[in-house]
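for the recovery benchmark. tokens below, seq after
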């Protein structure tokens, strides 16, 4: 298995579950509630690491900065997500953490920059990490970000969501992944929520357009992006083969993650492997595009 090195923003995900009691007598639109319970887990890049460790037994090294971490407090009544409160929304940058990660990079490593833009990784750090990785044999660099910068050029994989992609190319809807790939010299994954994703493979000059059936067991999409990347990384680490199988596996992990609440639970390798072994996909090739659709059995 490939070793996985992750650097990024460690957050705290705090969940507060409330029970409704009655309407406020002075304002019938306002609820009176009481606290049922509270739970906390590692969020941000920490959620990515939790999912990776659940999906494969490879060595995972996590680099982050800070002693107090940005906290996302999510308030729920039952399964209904009401609002989010953010505390300590930034971390202090520490160049020593970047130096230590760079010194750790060895042949065959998978290096992951999970950037929640809280301060752990600055743009010049991305350049240093990619440059170091290019000097070491068979190192693959993955960048997961909500903003595409010139400094991301020459990473192996760039993962972004559709909103970020559209902002990057001023809203152009066709061939977005290909355009971003050409501009940044990397493979590109654009996630599109419950619709699927689109990928452009630069060496093959091929687009993969992935769609799927509606997930009727959907509960919550929080953390699905981390789950997708964790599935992709774990499959590559375990099997070191083919982009398409890894992408299908990644989508399955993300799909499973949306069937539980927030980031409280992670997808297990047993769950993901079983779903993958039963996956029903249809593939059609037209020109330089591979159209892949996954059927989902919803009970």
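predicted aa per position
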């Amino acid at each position: 298995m490939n070793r996985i090195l992750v650097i990024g923003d460690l957050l705290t995900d705090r969940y507060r579950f409330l029970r409704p009691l009655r309407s406020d007598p002075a304002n019938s639109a306002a609820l009176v509630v009481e606290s049922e319970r509270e739970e906390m887990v590692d969020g941000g890049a920490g959620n990515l690491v939790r999912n990776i460790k659940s999906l494969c037994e490879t060595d995972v090294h996590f680099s982050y900065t800070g002693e107090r971490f940005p906290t996302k407090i999510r308030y729920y009544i039952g399964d209904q997500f009401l609002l989010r409160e953010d505390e300590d929304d930034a971390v202090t940058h520490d160049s020593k953490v970047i130096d230590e990660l760079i010194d750790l990079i060895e042949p065959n490593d998978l290096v992951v920059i999970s950037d929640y833009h809280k301060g752990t990784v600055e743009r010049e750090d991305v350049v240093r990490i990619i440059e170091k990785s290019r000097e070491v044999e068979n190192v693959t660099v993955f960048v997961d970000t909500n903003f595409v910068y010139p400094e991301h050029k020459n990473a192996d994989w760039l993962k972004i969501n559709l909103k970020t992609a559209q902002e990057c190319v001023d809203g152009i809807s066709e061939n977005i992944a290909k355009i971003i790939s050409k501009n940044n010299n990397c493979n590109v994954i654009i996630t599109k929520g419950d619709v699927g994703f689109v990928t452009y493979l630069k060496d093959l000059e091929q687009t993969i357009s992935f769609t799927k059936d509606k997930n009727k067991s959907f509960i919550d999409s929080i953390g699905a992006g981390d789950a997708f990347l964790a599935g992709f990384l774990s499959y590559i680490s375990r099997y070191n083969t083919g982009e398409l199988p890894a992408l299908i596996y990644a989508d399955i992990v993300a799909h499973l993650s949306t069937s539980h609440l927030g980031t409280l639970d992670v997808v297990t390798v047993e769950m993901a492997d079983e779903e993958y072994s039963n996956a029903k996909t249809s593939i059609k090739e037209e020109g330089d595009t591979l159209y892949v659709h996954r059927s989902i059995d919803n009970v």
